[in-house]
Amino acid sequence: MERKRLRSEEANEARHEDIAARVEAAVQGKQEERFLKMSDREEDTDMTLDTMEALYIGQARSTWKTVPFGKSAFDWQMYASLIEEVKPRTIVDIGSWAGGSALFFADFAEMLVGEKFQTVVSLDITLRSVRHRARQHPKIQFHECSTECFKDLFTDEFAARLPHPWLVSEDAHHHFDMVMERLNVLLQPGDYLVVEDTSTQMQDWFAQCNDGTEEDGQAAKQSQTAEAIHQLRKKKEILQRYCMHSEKYRCDSKFLDMFGYNVGKHWNSILKCIA
Which Pfam families has this protein been placed in (predicted)? Predict the structure, then answer.
């Protein structure tokens, strides 16, 4: 038994050394190490549970220009660096909420892309929560649209008016099958797709926190949380179905592993369209 345990520890240590070497190669910009098929990436993370819990506490308090933002400190750096490198002319923000993410994207794109940046297209099933400050930004267009009707908004004619490269940030979770079906047609080489909350660690933690003894008045809330977790797991399965062995998408390990292997909310879901 002791020999078996030691062999297991040695194998685990070797695996992490291999991961660390790949992360370092990606940081140094080696293309063959940076852009990988999803099937060549591990479903694992260097992030501890304590760090993940702290990340979500901080995210809940996060704002951009006083508008609730819904992004963590890791997200700030990742998206800023991604915008600086890709220089998207169009950013698609799926899941407007209060408008903080759209406002953040617009401000950073204006600063880092300049006059070539055209617009942020932000959508949600309702825009009632979008703050006035976000609505005032001239580079943001908000659309009240369920993700179930994503294809009705992103028609060929509408998409043709949105110059590439695109940066698409998906943070709505519901009806991802409909969203991905349409994006798979519209995305062109050089575009990026970031699918949020694909961390299995995070999903399992949410589920564990939701499995406590029901208290008076909490049954409905628990049911809503359970459904949200279900949607996150389903979304991940859909993404893997499109991307696991695809020749169209590659995981960009430079941004996935900025703070360690899959550290953050995105497990293997910062994707570059290459074909």
Answer: RMNT_CmcI (PF04989)
Give domain status of residue 200, yes or no: yes
pLDDT tens digit sequence for 36-58: 999 999 999 999 999 999 998 99
Q: What is the CATH number of the domain that holds 78?
A: 3.40.50.150
The DSSP 8-state label assigned to residue 95 in this structure reads -
How far does the chain reach from its first CA to its final CA, in angstroms?
49
Report whether the peptide linkage leading into residue 165 is cis, meaning its omega lies within 30 degrees of zero: yes
Residue 111 lies in a domain: yes
- What are the residues whose beta carbons fall under 8 Å from the beta carbon of 150, sequence distance 6 or more? 94, 123, 175, 178, 179, 182
In the chain, the number of structural domains is 1
> How far from the centroid of its chain's Cα atoms is residue 194's Cα?
4
The answer to pTM > 0.85 is yes
Which residues in the chain land under pLDDT 50?
none
The DSSP-derived string for 123-190 is EES--TT--HHHHT-TTEEEEE--GGGHHHHS-HHHHHTSPSSEEEEE---TTHHHHHHHHHHH--TT
